Every structure is written in C-alpha cells, then in structure tokens.
C-alpha cells in the first residue's frame, strides 16, 4: 500500500483542477483512499489523512466520516496527532453530536498533561466548543489551572472559565476564589484574560458585581493598572503605534463601565482616570481612537459628572471630522445613542452631522439621517428641512421611504406655517412620490383639509404638479382628491399666496381623465380620480354632462372597483339626484384620529345619531313616549325595543349628517356638520372612500336586483311598500325604504310612521321626505329604516301609522310578517 | 446595555469567494455555517472600496478588512467596539506575517492548519489570550518544535 499523498501535494493537485467537476472527481478519489486507510486503522498516516480531510471540508465537501478519527488522534501520544485531532474536533464536531462527548475523557487527561502545550490544546478546545455537559464535567480542572503559577496556562484557563460560565452560569461561584489575586499578575496575557473573566462575572450576576465593587475594591485596582499603562514608558512587547497595550486598556475601560454603571461611588473613583485617558490618548491612528471610543462609551454609561460628558461628546464631535470613515461611523452610532439624554450637547455638532448626509458610505448616511431627524426642533426646522429635502432628492432608493416619513413627521411637529407645511409635503411628493408610505396619503389629505385658508393655493400647486407628470401615485392620489374637493377654487382663479392660474373646467377634467386612462395609474389612483370627477359635478357648472358621460362609461369598466363606483355614481345621478349636492358637499375639518383599525362601525352609528335607540324622546318629537309605551304594551312585553322616529324633517334636504347615514357604516361625530372619520383604513386598497364622504363599503345592491319588495300595509287607500337593500360587506344591516302612497282623493297630512322590532334587533328611523301623502298616488313619502340584525333572526315588525285624512285623525297598528328571507337571512 | 460581548466567528476568504479559514465561536450546524458563509461573503464582496469597514448583517455587526487578496471578516455582537476589532484583525495578520515571513494568500492556502494554530494561540472563545506578539509567536515556535521532537506520556 503506497503511502497516502501528503497534504501539500493534495492541495497542489486539487488546485490544478480546471472545472468544478474535475475537482469533485479528485476529491472523491482521495476520499475513497482516505476511507480505506481509516478502515485499516492505520496509525502512521491518520494525522495526514485527517488533515487532508479538513482541507476538503473547507472546500465544502462532506467529512463526517472523519469525526471518530479525530477522537483517535486526540487520544494519541504524539503531539502532531493531538494538534490535528483537536483542530479536526473543533471543525467537524459540535455539541449537537453525541460523539463529541467521547472527547471528554481525553480532554480531562490532557488538562493534566505534563506538557503545557498539550494542556493548552485541551483548554483551547474546551474553551471554544465545549458543551454544557463537558463544561460541567471539567470545570474543576479548569478551576485548578486558574490557580497555577504558570502564566501560559493561567491566561488560557481564565478564558476557558469564561466559556464554562457562559455555558453553565450556575458554576460561576466556584471560580470566585481563584479570581482573588488575578489582577496582581504582571503578565499582560493573564491580566487581559482576567479582566475578561471578571467582566463576564460582573455582567452576569448582580451579586458578583456588588461583591467586586465593595469587597474586592476592584475599581481602585483597575484604575491603578490603567494608570500604569498610560504613564509607563515605552514597552516594546505591548506597544501598538506608541500606545501601551491597547487591548488591555479597552478591556479595563469596559469593566470600569460595568462597575460604574448606576453606582455613584464607583463612578466618582474612576472620574479622573477617564478624563486623563480622554485627553492624553494619541488620536492619529485607529488604535488611539479605539481607546477613546471605549472611553466615551464608558463615560456615557456611568454616572459621570457633566463636564466629563461634555468632554465625551466633544470627542465624538471631533470623530465626525476625522478623515477615517470608520471613525465617523462609530461617532454617528454613539451620538445616536446619546442624542436623547444629552440633546443640547449633540445639537452643537449638528452642522457636522448634516454634512455626513453627503458621505459616500450608506451606513454613515443612514446614521446621519437618523441623527438629523433626532435633532430637528422648532428653531432649526427651516434649515434642517432644506438639507433633508436635498438629501431625499439625492439619496439611494433604500432611504427614500424612511426619509419621507421622517420629513412628514418633523414637518407635522414643527412646521412654522401651514403654507410651509404644504410646500414641504409637495416637495416630498414630487421628489420621492413613489416611495411615500401608503398611510401618508390619508394623513396628508387630512392635513390639507384642515388648512382651510390655503385650499386654493394647495389645489393650484397640486394641479400644476401633476400636469407634467402623473406617474407618482401618492402625489396623484392627493392631487386628485384635492381637485375633486376644491376644483371650484381652482377654476375661479382665486389664490391667496401666489399668482392664480387660468384653468377651465374642461382642462381640469382633462387631467383627471388622463389619470383614469393612464397605464401608470393604479386601481386605487383611478378610484380617486373617478370620485374626484364625480365631486366636481356639484362644483362645476358647465361640464356636468361631460361628467355624467365619464361616469356612465366607467360603469362597464373591467376594473370591478371602478365599475362599482361608476354604477353608484350613476345611481346618484339618476335616482338620488336630490341628495347629490349634499352628499358631495365640501369636507369639514376633520378630527385627528390615531390608528388605522376598522372602526366598530355599526355599533357606534346609533350612539351618535340624533335619534337614539333608547326610550329618550327627541326634543322635537310629538309625544313619542306614550306612543312608545303603547307599542311596548301591544307587542307583548319586554322583548320589544321601541323605536322613536326622528322628528319629521323641518329641513327636508338636510345637511350631510343624516343623509350620509343612508350609506351606512360611518362614524358620525354627532354635530350638525357631522363628518366621517377619515382615518379608518381597514385595508390599504380602501382608504379613499371614507374620506370623500362616501361609504367605503360598496353601496347596497341596486334596488331592482336581489331582494323582492313587499307591501307591508295596505288599507283605506294607504299603501306602504317596503324595498330592501343589504350591504355585501356588512350583512347584519338591512336598509328598508318605505314608500307610502295614497290612492284616495284627498291628501293624508301629518303622516307619521313608527316602527318597533324585537329586542335582538336594533332599528333606526331616518327622516321622512315629507309628512303629506298626496292623493291619487301622485306622490309618495319616502322614509328609510335601518335594521341591525346581527343574529340573523327572522325580521318582524310592528308599525303604527298616524295621519289626518278627510278631517279626522287616523291611527292604525299593523304587524309586518311577510319579510322576504333575503332581507334577513 | 449588555456588555457581554462575543465574537461569533471569523472568516478568511479570497476575492473570488473561496473560503480559506473559518473559526466559529458559537455552536452552529454545518448546514447553517455554509449558509451564513455564503451569504456574508456575498455581502462583503459587494462592498465598494470607499465604504467603511463595518456593516450590519442579521443581528450582528461585521468588521472586515482586506489585506491583499484576502478578506478578514469578524462577526461581533452589537455592542462591541468595532475599532478595537480592527486592531485585533491587524494583530492576527501581523502574527501570520511574522510567522510566514511576508505572508501571502498562498501561505494560508498551503498551511491552513498553521493559520488555525496561530489563531488558536491568539484568541480563545473570541477573546484575546495574550496581547504580546512576542509571547504568542514564541509559544507557536515551541509547539512546532514539539511536533518534531515528540512528547512523552501524559
């Protein structure tokens, strides 16, 4: 059997492979040879074979069949074998495999070996990958070695102990005695690893921390060591660019941080040394700055006096001016952490921070941006916003969304004037319009609505903005909404803030129609545009027919959303024309609502209605209470909720409030100019509707489809028909429109319709269209009833009619039982 | 703010994305290691020269520096001092340089096990064992000698 090829030979061979396939072939061949060699239990070449296997493993090839071989190498007496064996174990084994536990005994033996380098190997392996079980088994050995006078072993034992404590925190206690004199060592290796060990213990256990603070007086010891390092002369062994043992300095500073945190005495004891390090450390190279950085971190974290804190922030300020981008990065990160607590000190460095917005490195830019937003306040808003808008313009796409949001927030908090605010928003929309977050659109619309005095200015600017380019959806959406709302201001040529532009109604409709047609417009945007066009039907005078045409065209749009809207708007034109102007009225000032959740729509409706559902009479009602009581009696007891009708409308074409209610599911605020809640945005695709005064839910089905109407009452010439509508998205609500007609030859006057339903239902009666039912069926009284039927029970209703006819007062009670199943199921 | 800081792993790889050394200080499966290495190599190799030596990756901070054709890459936990990690990387390169005499990538390729031995003499569990260059090199030297001479029974 020829000797297996040497490691370097194999490496050389594999590197000659020209393709992946060739390499794989070589590897497979060699692996086969190694496998058979392992099978033969060859001791001589085991080491060489495992080494080769480790090389192939690094190339990405499987090497698990070598795991046991590593264990055999570890158990060997040859140092070479042990070295490779331990290396193999660290690379191929991990605590997930039970195999690794087989190492435990070997490690134990080697920890007690007569050669320190073997002990070192064992300590290193245990300290790098020892599992909890292994650590538990071998902690005692480690603790022993921690007390040895051999500094080579002592330093390794300290770090091994750190690993043991990380794996099995309960074992921390047993290492305590051994730490007693660790810091008296002269050897820097031991000092360094001891500080690491003490850091681990203090950080993990508050008891240990207290112990080391009080009993061991750790702080003075550390201060002494640090002082020696700084003051002592040149020590070639530990020197790095003129600084003595920077690694040790940094670890000491870190431990001081933990000791000084939340402890006045400790913090005071380290004050001087921190000031000394901060002022005396050489800053020309990275190593000095590394120490300064750690010092700053410590100063900021302990209870340092204000002078020291200012010193720290100034160091960070100087870092910002450093040519080395790494230093700038680190400074920005730290400033970001302290900006809340030391705001004024950080403000002083604002201009340097803002300059970092122009840095070439993305991480630095990002931090500079975050920090800039943290520093914006009422005093610097104008200047800062200029910089931030410039940044928004030129920054990478990954920043734009965050930057836009940040700008909006800052503008909202500190805008010096409404016009400035609108201008800023415009700038963002035109610069980064496609990156603006979805929730920005409704927020902006609300803001615009509430900036009453500059509506004309706003709509003009928005109009101009989309004239050239209507590809940025959020911008177009806001613009469309505004044009729909304030289009009249636009064509009338009023503008307070700037030169008004001349624009005709047709031109406005042109742009909105272009948005509708454009391929770039999303479905949501189209929705906005169509609704805007519709709204203009009450604001424009000469182009209503054009609007009607557009609306009817989209009634057959492939886009279901658009189609739905168009059909509804068509219905508005055809059937509900008398409501159109009220429905499309100008939006009142909105209350700020915080979150976006679907509101509890139907429940709240009743509460805010002028006609509550309880037995409380409305102020102008004609003795409803007694009538209510009557109903109660007649309908046999407690399972009936009487319903008070609203007073016959003294203002038949009343303002938005009640009529809006027809479309249901709006949260009215109970004021005469009741406004729908703007911020209910249940799904991203639906935001616009609630805002423009129309229901976000599809309007009820067209009256002639679906649910059959019934004749609820027909007697003495008075006929009352019920027609039904139900909402697709809220099937608990049924809207009944009653139509009362009079076939007699005389009018019926003072007509009042009342209704009552079983307790599981809720009922709401809206204003009737009039109180006179004209004779000869020449007209009808229309009234709307909304029924909430969450339990989907069979609808029953008691109605009471009172009217004057032929000079006498008439009254009748009836029960309506013939509701079609589709109206309640 | 936790000060328990640990280096999770160190990687050495070439500009062509060939791994030359991987030292893991936190138990990770082979599969997971491969995935992380592949991902991180991609991220680091995409960095432009003008960018700083630190980047955020997953929940870790990565400190990297290029020496000739080799990238030295350390993943540290969030609160650690990146600047001193750069010094740590530099110290390791110095050790390699002293040991191999003007070290280049080929030295690391053909003597990868030695690169590991030196690293394991310098760091343990991600922390520095000895801050003296001389001391670390002396230990390696003596251990190498032991390989030649052999060791007695334990």
Automatic annotation (TrEMBL), chain A:
Ranges where the record places region Disordered: 595-634
Main location as per UniProt: membrane
Residue spans of biased composition, Polar residues class: 595-607
Source taxon at top rank: Eukaryota
Keyword Transport: yes
SMART domains per the UniProt record, alphabetical: Alpha_adaptinC2
Topology in membrane: Peripheral membrane protein
A Pfam entry, by short name: Adaptin_N
SUPFAM superfamilies referenced in this protein's UniProt entry, alphabetically: ARM repeat, Clathrin adaptor appendage domain
Subcellular location: Cytoplasmic vesicle membrane; Endomembrane system; Golgi apparatus
Keywords noted in UniProt: Cytoplasmic vesicle, Golgi apparatus, Membrane, Protein transport, Transport
InterPro entries associated with the record: Adaptor_Complx_Large_Subunit, AP1_complex_gsu, ARM-like, ARM-type_fold, Clathrin/coatomer_adapt-like_N, Clathrin_a/b/g-adaptin_app_Ig, Clathrin_app_Ig-like_sf, GAE_dom
Domain GAE: from-to ranges: 705-820
Entry similarity comment: Belongs to the adaptor complexes large subunit family.
Protein name in UniProt: AP-1 complex subunit gamma
Lineage: Eukaryota, Metazoa, Chordata, Craniata, Vertebrata
UniProtKB/TrEMBL annotation, chain B:
Stated name of the protein: AP-1 complex subunit sigma-1A isoform X2
Organism this protein belongs to: Echinops telfairi (Lesser hedgehog tenrec)
């Amino acid at each position: 059997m020829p000797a297996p090829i040497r490691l370097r030979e194999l490496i050389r061979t594999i590197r000659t492979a020209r393709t992946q396939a060739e390499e794989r072939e070589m590897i497979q061949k060699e692996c086969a040879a190694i496998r058979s060699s392992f099978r033969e239990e060859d001791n001589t070449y085991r080491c060489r074979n495992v080494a080769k296997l480790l090389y192939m493993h690094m190339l990405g090839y499987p090497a698990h069949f070598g795991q046991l071989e590593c264990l055999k190498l570890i158990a060997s007496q040859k140092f070479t074998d042990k070295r490779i064996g331990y290396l193999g174990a660290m690379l191929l084994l991990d605590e997930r495999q039970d195999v690794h536990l087989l190492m435990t005994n070997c490690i134990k033996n080697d920890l007690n070996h007569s050669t320190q380098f073997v002990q070192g190997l064992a300590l290193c392996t245990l300290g790098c990958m020892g599992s909890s079980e292994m650590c538990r088994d071998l902690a005692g050995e480690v603790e022993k070695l921690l007390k040895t006078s051999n500094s080579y072993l002592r330093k390794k034992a300290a770090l091994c102990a750190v690993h043991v404590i990380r794996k099995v925190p309960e074992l921390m206690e047993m290492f305590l005695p051994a730490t007693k004199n660790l810091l008296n060592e002269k050897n820097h290796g031991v000092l360094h690893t001891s500080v690491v060990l003490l850091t681990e213990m203090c950080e993990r256990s508050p008891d240990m921390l207290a112990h080391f603070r009080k009993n061991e007086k750790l702080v003075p010891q550390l201060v002494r060591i640090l002082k020696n390092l700084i003051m002592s002369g040149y020590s070639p062994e530990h020197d790095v660019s003129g600084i003595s043992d920077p690694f040790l300095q940094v670890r000491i500073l870190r431990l001081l941080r933990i000791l000084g945190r939340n402890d006045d005495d400790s913090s005071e004891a380290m004050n001087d040394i921190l000031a000394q390090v901060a002022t005396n450390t050489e800053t020309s190279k990275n190593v000095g700055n590394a120490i300064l950085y750690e010092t700053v971190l410590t100063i900021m974290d302990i209870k340092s006096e204000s002078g020291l804190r200012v010193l720290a922030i100034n160091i960070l300020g100087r870092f910002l001016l450093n040519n080395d981008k790494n230093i700038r990065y680190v400074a920005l990160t730290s400033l970001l952490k302290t900006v809340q607590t030391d705001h004024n000190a950080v403000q002083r460095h604002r201009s340097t921070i803002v300059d970092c917005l122009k840095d070439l490195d993305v991480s630095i830019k990002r931090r500079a941006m975050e920090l800039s937003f943290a520093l914006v306040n009422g005093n610097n808003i104008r200047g800062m916003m200029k910089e931030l808008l410039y940044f928004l313009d030129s920054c990478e796409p990954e920043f734009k969304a965050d930057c836009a949001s940040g700008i909006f927030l800052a503008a909202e908090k500190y805008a010096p004037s409404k016009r400035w605010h609108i201008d800023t928003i415009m700038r963002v929309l035109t610069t980064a319009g496609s990156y603006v977050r979805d929730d920005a659109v409704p927020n902006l619309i609300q803001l615009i609505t509430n900036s009453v005095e500059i509506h004309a200015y706003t709509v003009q600017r928005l109009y101009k903005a989309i004239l050239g380019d209507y590809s940025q959806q959020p911008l177009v959406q806001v613009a469309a909404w505004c044009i729909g709302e304030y289009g009249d201001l636009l064509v009338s040529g009023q503008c307070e803030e700037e030169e008004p532009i001349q624009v005709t109604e047709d031109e406005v409709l042109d742009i909105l129609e272009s948005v509708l047609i454009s391929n770039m417009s999303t479905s949501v945007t189209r929705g906005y545009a169509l609704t805007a066009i519709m709204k203009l039907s009450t604001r424009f005078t000469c182009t209503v027919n054009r609007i009607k045409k557009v609306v009817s065209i989209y009634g057959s749009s492939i886009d279901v959303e658009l189609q739905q809207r168009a059909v509804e708007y068509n219905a508005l034109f055809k059937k509900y024309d008398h409501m159109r102007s009220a429905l499309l009225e100008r939006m009142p000032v909105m209350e700020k609502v915080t979150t976006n959740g679907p509101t509890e729509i139907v429940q709240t409706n009743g509460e805010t209605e002028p006609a509550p559902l309880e037995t409380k009479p409305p102020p102008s009602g004609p003795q409803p209470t007694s009538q209510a009581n009557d109903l109660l009696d007649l309908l046999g007891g407690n399972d009936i909720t009487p319903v008070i009708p609203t007073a016959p409308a003294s203002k038949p074409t009343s303002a938005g409030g009640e009529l809006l209610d027809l479309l249901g599911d709006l949260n009215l605020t109970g004021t005469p100019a009741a406004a729908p809640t703007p911020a209910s945005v249940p799904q991203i695709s639906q935001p616009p509707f609630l805002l423009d005064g129309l229901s976000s839910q599809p309007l009820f089905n067209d009256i002639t489809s679906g649910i059959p109407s019934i004749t609820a009452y027909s007697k003495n010439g008075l006929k009352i028909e019920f027609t039904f509508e139900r909402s697709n998205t809220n099937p608990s609500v049924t809207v009944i429109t009653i139509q009362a007609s009079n076939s007699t030859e005389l009018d019926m006057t003072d007509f009042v319709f009342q209704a009552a339903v079983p307790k599981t239902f809720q009922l709401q009666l809206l204003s009737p269209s009039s109180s006179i039912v004209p004779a000869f069926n020449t007209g009808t009284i229309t009234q709307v009833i909304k029924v909430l039927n969450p339990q989907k029970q069979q609808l029953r209703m008691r109605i009471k009619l009172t009217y004057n006819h032929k000079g006498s007062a008439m009254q009748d009670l009836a029960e309506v039982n013939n509701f079609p199943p589709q109206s309640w199921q | 703010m936790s000060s328990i800081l640990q280096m999770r792993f160190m990687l050495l790889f070439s500009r062509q994305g060939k791994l030359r050394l991987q030292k893991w200080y936190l138990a990770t499966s082979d599969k997971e290691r491969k995935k992380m290495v592949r991902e991180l190599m991609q991220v680091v190799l995409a960095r432009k020269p003008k960018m700083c030596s630190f980047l955020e990756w997953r929940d870790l901070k990565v400190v990297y520096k290029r020496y000739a054709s080799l990238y030295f890459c350390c993943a540290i936990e969030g609160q650690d001092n990146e600047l001193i990690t750069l010094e740590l990387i530099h110290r390791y390169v110095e050790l390699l340089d002293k040991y191999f005499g003007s070290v280049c990538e080929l030295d690391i390729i053909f003597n990868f096990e030695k690169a590991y031995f030196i690293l394991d003499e310098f760091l343990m569990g991600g922390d520095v064992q000895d801050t003296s260059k001389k001391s670390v090199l002396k230990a390696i030297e003596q251990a190498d000698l032991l390989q030649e001479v052999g060791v007695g029974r334990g």
